[in-house]
What does this fold into?
Amino acid sequence: MALLIRNGEIVTEGSRLRADIYAEGETITAIGNNLAAAPGTEVIDASGKLIFPGFIDPHVHIYLPFMGTFAKDTHETASIAALVGGTTTYIEMCCPNRNDDALEGYELWKSRAAGKSACDYAFHMSVTKFVNETESQLREIVADGSASFKIFLAYKNFFGVDDGEMYQTLELAKRLGVIVTAHCENAELVARLQQKLLAEGRIGPEWHEPSRPESVEAEGTGRLATFLENTGATGYVVHLSCEKALRAAVDAKSRGVKIHVESVLPHFLLDKSHAELPGVEGMKHVMSPPLRAKRNLDVLWKALAAGDIDTVGTDHCPFDAEQKLMGKDSFVNIPNGIPGIEDRVNLLYTQGVKRGRLDLERFVDAASTRAAKLFGLYPRKGTVAVGSDADLVVYDTNYRGVISAKSQYTNNDYNAFEGVEIEGRPSVVTVRGKVQVRDGKFVGERGRGRMLKREPSHF
Ligand code: URP
Ligand code: ZN
Ligand code: ZN
It folds into this structure.
């Protein structure tokens, strides 16, 4: 079936163009004016609307056994939530823990997604220990098309690696041409500060941030950078939350270290006062690195506009109120995570573009193109061009709405952005030429998503 989108304004990371887009089958086959439609073509009138490349969320958790429970979404629910919000590809963190076999974990994560996701997806493979078989297993995983790793400097004894294991992972990644994404917090300091605060009777969610202060994240970021510098590997700091950590990354970049930076939706919009709310309301805002002092938000927006922050992800990680209450007697037991896969694009557009913090091209770059380039998906994904997959977002800038858990597809009983206004939303979303969403409703084919195979590109 062919698709013709007429009269929209196509926005990519480097251009704006008023033209029609024609897709035969799964790919874009023509871009131009007054394109003719063969009989049977589905025609969409995009007059007055913007057309973006399908957005890419480079950091999500869907299947996640973590902190004694499981994140709430499945690939069915998360992919539909993603699509309704304009995200047509996500990269899930495949997270076996230190006691699991890496290859078995990889197969398990793949099996959870296969035939279930309504949008395309890929995996970052977590390296949570480095033992005899690790190198051969990682080679097999890369050969299978998952050409990016994840390491955690936090979460001691669970996901966390020590410095030796970080070195081995980076050194192998350099040889394989694989980029390494990293959660940068000093695990030892977090553990010590948690113990100290609990011993003082400080047990509420408001103590989560003081247990992992900005300096602890800056240390992790700086240490990753030092290891990248000395191995020649390429790194990507995930969910960077504060000015101190940003400075460590930018300093490293300026001395030639191959380091990229992601920040995630909650850190642009929410601050630590949200985690200081009483009871479960505070717990709903616990994630790591934590929501920070408000002064950081403006710093992150400016760094995003300047490109010092490369991408905006979500770190989508839904736990419901009952799960959050597992930490009612101790903040260290609150499952860490805030969902956002459904709202990232609309909130970034509203709070970024509409508030004058981001231009449209940089918005597309940060929410789609740069992730595609860094993670081996470009130009198949991340742009609107002949030969690219017909993943397209026809965006209605006149839409006005309010975010609410009541109307979300995400499988959770709250939304951390409840009540926030949005000034725009996708009116049509396509995945490889097929309409999956119309005006906030999933109308497509479940299980249409495919795992995207990616080649190493960071030599
Ligand atoms: O709080 C968070 N970020 N939860 C998900 C796990 C991680 O660290 O990314
Ligand atoms: Zn993390
Ligand atoms: Zn994460």
